[in-house]
C-alpha cells in the first residue's frame, strides 16, 4: 500500500510541471498559464511578458483557432486586467492604450 501511495504522489507532482515555466514567474502567473494551456486546444497559443505603465504584465494569446478571440492581460499576480484584440480591436487596459506596451519576452508557447 505504501508503494501505491508513493507512486500516486510521484505522478501528481511530476504531471503538474509539464509546461516547464520559468522559475522567475510568480505562482499566480504560473497557475493562470497552466489553466490557460489546459483549456485551450489551439496549437499556437502563447504567453508573452510586456512592460506596461511601468509594471510587468502578461498577455495570454489564444492563437488562430477561432475568429474574434480576445487575449487576456494579467498582472504579475495572475489577476485579470482586461482583454485586448477581438473584432473591435480593443487595445484599452486600465485606462491606457496597450499599444504603448513594450514586449519583453515570450514566457511560454505551445
How would you briefly describe this protein structure?
The chain is α+β, with helices and mostly antiparallel strands and 110 residues long. The protein is built from 2 helices and 7 strands.
What features would you describe in this structure?
- By secondary structure, this protein is α+β, with helices and mostly antiparallel strands.
- The chain has one domain.
- 24% of the residues lie in helices and 34% in strands.
- It contains two helices and seven strands.
- It has helices at 2-15, 27-38; strands spanning 46-52, 55-61, 70-74, 80-85, 92-93, 96-97, 102-109.
- The strands form two sheets. It has a five-stranded antiparallel beta sheet, covered by helices on one side.
- The chain is globular and about 55 Å long.
- Residues 12-17 have low confidence and may be disordered.
SSE topology:
Blueprint: H1 2-15, H2 27-38, E1 46-52, E2 55-61, E3 70-74, E4 80-85, E5 92-93, E6 96-97, E7 102-109
Antiparallel strand pairs: 1-2, 1-7, 2-3, 3-4, 5-6
Keywords:
single chain; 110 residues; alpha+beta; two-stranded antiparallel ribbon
Query: Helical element count?
Result: 2
Mean pLDDT: 88
Molecular shape: globular
SSE sequence, one letter per element: HHEEEEEEE
Helix content: 10-25%
Strand tally: 7
Low-confidence parts lasting 5 or more residues at pLDDT below 50? Answer: 12-17
How many structural domains?
1
N- to C-terminal separation? 37 Å
Q: Strand share of the residues? A: 25-35%
**Strand order within the widest beta sheet:** 4-3-2-1-7
Tell me the radius of gyration.
Answer: 16 Å
Main sheet overview:
5 strands, antiparallel
Class from helix and strand fractions: alpha+beta
Amino acid at each position: 500500500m505504501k508503494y501505491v501511495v508513493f507512486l500516486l504522489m510521484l505522478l501528481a507532482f511530476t504531471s503538474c510541471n509539464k509546461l516547464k515555466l520559468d522559475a522567475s514567474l510568480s505562482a499566480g502567473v504560473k497557475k493562470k498559464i497552466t489553466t490557460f494551456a489546459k483549456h485551450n486546444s489551439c496549437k499556437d497559443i502563447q504567453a508573452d511578458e510586456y512592460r506596461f505603465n511601468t509594471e510587468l504584465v502578461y498577455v495570454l494569446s489564444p492563437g488562430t483557432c477561432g475568429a474574434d478571440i480576445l487575449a487576456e492581460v494579467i498582472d504579475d499576480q495572475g489577476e485579470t486586467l482586461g482583454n485586448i484584440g477581438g473584432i473591435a480591436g480593443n487595445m484599452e487596459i486600465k485606462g491606457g492604450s496597450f499599444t504603448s506596451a513594450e514586449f519583453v519576452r515570450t514566457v511560454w508557447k505551445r
